[in-house]
Specification:
Blueprint lengths: L1 E3 L12 E3 L3 E4 L6 E4 L2 H8 L4 H11 L3 E4 L4 E5 L4 H15 L10 E6 L4 E6 L5 E3 L5 H8 L9 H17 L5 H9 L1 H10 L5 H8 L9 H10 L1 H24 L32
Antiparallel strand pairs: 1-2, 3-4, 4-6, 5-6, 7-8, 8-9
Length: about 280
């Protein structure tokens, strides 16, 4: 069964809901304790770590608390009824969850252990302010800031390490590796050109203008300077191929001979001089 996060609001259509606390008493004598069975679900609805409301109960009741995060067990020493803890949870919600301006629970805590301050910001109305740190729970919060807190020094260091790890995963390279790659730019372009991964026009167009879209403009210029030998070779090869094409066109000219061409007619000329005739018998 769910209840309104702000139980002072009786509207049944109130959008912010949370599960009703379920408490289970275990043990006997001095070892008696109350396990809050669904503390993880309740804390999720409040957008707070489950350790915060559990510790709040301990502060209000003067009882020790235990957190078994691995098994999702949150314990308050002693025997406590669920209704009593539910009423006590209202106090936690009012102090550490609801926005002081609009009373909506869409808030985030911003913990700064160095300055010993706890800030509060509301996503619903835009409120930003500071919490009163006199409550005993605030000491616990300062020592254990929420994961979404952006001001903890420990978190900043962790984020730096994560960024370094992600850079390696994403293929980022060091300055020495960059220098080695730049020196091999002509070979890399040649391999990609031979494998038909890059077209000649694309490479030449790329070489004509340095862009700072992916790297700094200085590095882009340096890359293109290193690529000049290959670009020059490409342009010369293009000129030679265009000249060769013109020669091929000349060679491919076909000469056609017409069968109907007229042949000059040879006329027989008769000689009038009889003396010019040769008598074979006389010979």
């Amino acid at each position: 069964m769910s209840v309104n996060v702000n139980r002072s609001v009786s509207d049944q259509f109130y959008r912010y809901k949370m599960p009703r606390l379920i408490a289970k008493v275990e043990g006997k004598g001095n070892g008696i304790k109350t396990v809050i069975v669904n503390m993880v679900d309740v804390a999720k609805a409040l957008n707070r770590p489950p350790t915060y409301p559990t510790k709040y109960f301990g502060c209000e009741l003067g009882a020790q608390t235990q957190f078994d995060v691995k098994n999702d067990r949150y314990i308050v020493n002693g025997s406590h009824e669920a209704n009593k803890l539910q009423d006590m949870l209202d106090g936690f919600i009012k102090k550490f969850v609801l926005c002081p301006e609009c009373e909506n629970p869409e808030t985030d805590l911003h913990v700064n252990p160095k300055k010993q301050t706890i800030g509060n910001s509301c996503k619903a109305c835009g409120y930003r302010g500071m919490l009163d740190t006199h409550h005993k729970l605030c000491t616990f919060i300062l020592k254990n800031p929420p994961e979404n807190s952006d001001s903890g020094t420990g978190k900043k260091e962790k984020e730096k390490k994560n960024r370094k790890g992600k850079d390696k995963e994403n293929g980022s390279v060091s300055s020495s590796e960059t220098a080695q790659l730049i020196s091999r730019i002509p070979h890399i372009l040649k391999e990609m050109y031979d494998a038909d991964l890059l077209e000649e026009e694309v490479i030449i167009s790329w070489s004509e203008k340095a862009s700072k879209k992916y790297v700094s403009k200085e590095l882009a210029k340096e890359i293109r300077v290193k690529a000049e030998p290959f670009i020059k070779w490409l342009k010369e090869a293009e000129e030679e191929s265009s000249g060769g094409e013109e020669e091929d066109e000349d060679e491919n000219i076909e000469v056609v001979y017409s069968k109907t061409a007229s042949v000059p007619k040879v006329e027989t000329v008769k000689s009038d001089n009889k003396d010019d005739d040769i008598d074979i018998d006389a010979i």
